[in-house]
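Same chain as my last thread, 111 residues:
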Amino acid sequence: MSGGRKLLEGLRFAAFYGKEVVACNLRVAADVVSPRPGWRPGVVAVGLKGMSDRQRLILALLVTMTPGTLSLEVDPREEVLYLHTLYGGADPERLRREILENYARPVRLLF
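reply #2:
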């Protein structure tokens, strides 16, 4: 990937991630003060086939820094990231897709 395209992808991801962190902070804060929080907790396994150790680490850190999700373990043999979520337990497949499309894809391109 050319330097210009990589820069554009990096800026695009930074904007997405910044917006995501703010939105997730607001959602978690609203649920903390709500008498009926919308939490649907669960543990979800996300496949990381073909990612380097560096890419897996960056992805795990990005997921952990997003409110409402926490990386539990990266299994290097199985190439799987296990994460705890406050909201994705009701639809783990959707969360898996979101992580792969919105986080793993840019991490593969940028790192």
